[in-house]
Amino acid sequence: MKSTALVNHYYFYCVDQDFGPFFLKFCSYFPYNAKLCLNGHEYVKCQLDQQGIAYEALDNGILSCKDPHRLQSLCNGLSAKKIDTLLRKWLARLPHPFSNRDRQAGYRYDLSILQIELSLTQVLDRPVTGRIFFEEVIRENLDIGRPKQVQLIFDRWVTRSTPGLFRTRVITDGVIPSLHVDYKGTRIKQYHKEGRALRTETTINNANDFYIGKRLHNLPALRRIGFQANRRLLEVQKITHDCIMAEETFQQINRARQVESQRTSALRFGDPKVQALWSALLVFPWLPTGFSNRNLRESFASLLGRTVHGLTRGQMTYQLRRLRLHGIIERIPQSHRYRLTDFGLRTALFCTRTYARILRPGLAQALPEIPCANNSLRHCFNKLQEEIHSCVNAARLAA
């Protein structure tokens, strides 16, 4: 009669000279199964330390290395033979269920791969933009777990009769979201690691999913599948626009800038003078001879509610200079006239339309103290606020 029982397990947490920290777990019940758990990144760190190669760690990964080519060579050098040698070395030192007599009779542990995790860590040179990029990746790739997409990632033919789950999940742990793609017993996890890198991890829980045996000598084949899946996921993923470049451009305009030895002030989005300047520029985009200081001064002054005489030529020269250094306008050769650049035209159009058609009317609808005929947005905000207050009161968090 079958039944279940709690069986004692014995853990040995060890530190090896070549592999770093690892543990061995022995079951006290026949057939005395054992598990070996090690981390390839720790192995690489030990090798780098032994060879005197400077590196900077990123949790259980590598952030930077003085000799990246040697680092990759060491990663590739973690073989089945070295892992087996590690096991034999520590079995000879640690107590375990098989006595010397058992070993002489031919009873010994043989390694198979129960689970293997293969990761690709791409360190970002501008980490602050990494979260923005990853949020866009999640938003644009929620269908990545569908069968047609999964078969591109794993290079496996998926039909209606293929067993297992094929899905995409977005899991939020605290404030750090992660993207999960499932294929049978294999899972890919992608997340923004410690705010510095994009980590893609393929975890194979059953080698038979790929018609490969579990014995340790199959390690190269499983590594090849896992690393290819990581790369294919990045190839299949897409984003509708380059959010990182857009963020950099927005910050570049809204901050002071230095071009060679010349420094200029920021064109801040919310500054009324800057909005008036954008609007004034849009009067002249298609003039074949461009515009002059006086042309722009007249339009700019009227938008500020001032007369042309109230805005000096020197003040307008200052505005022209910062527009030029920000790449919004350019001087026409051999003249004192200017024209908008393609970048300047698109930026001016976007900033003026966003400010005039979204921010100002949107705030009027959202804020309770401003009269507004169309109150649908305000109604939604009021409902949200009521729900928050209700939740706070239910949790008895109110002061």
Task: Quickly give the structural class.
Answer: alpha+beta
Low-confidence stretches: none
Whole-number tally of structural domains:
3
Determine the mean pLDDT: 84
Q: What is the succession of H and E elements?
A: EEEHEEHHHEHHEEEEHHEEHHHEEHH
CATH topology of the largest domain: S-adenosylmethionine decarboxylase
| CATH architectural arrangement of the largest domain | 4-Layer Sandwich
Strand fraction equals: 15-25%
- Please report the number of helical segments: 13
Q: Mind telling me the CATH class of the largest domain? A: Alpha Beta
Structure description:
This protein has 399 residues and is an alpha+beta fold. The protein has 3 domains: 7-100, no CATH class; 112-253, 4-Layer Sandwich (S-adenosylmethionine decarboxylase), CATH 3.60.90; 256-366, Arc Repressor Mutant, subunit A. Helix content is 41%, strand content 21%. It is built from 13 helices and 14 strands. It has helices spanning 40-50, 68-76, 80-91, 100-104, 130-140, 147-154, 219-236, 243-253, 272-281, 293-304, 313-325, 342-366, 376-394, and strands spanning 9-16, 20-27, 34-38, 55-58, 61-65, 116-123, 166-173, 176-183, 186-193, 197-204, 257-259, 262-264, 329-331, 338-340. The strands form 5 sheets. The protein has a 5-stranded antiparallel β-sheet, with helices on one face. A hairpin with a 3-residue loop joins strand 9 and strand 10. The longest helix has 25 residues, at 342-366. The protein is elongated and about 105 Å long. The two termini are 60 Å apart. The model has no long low-confidence stretch (mean pLDDT 84).
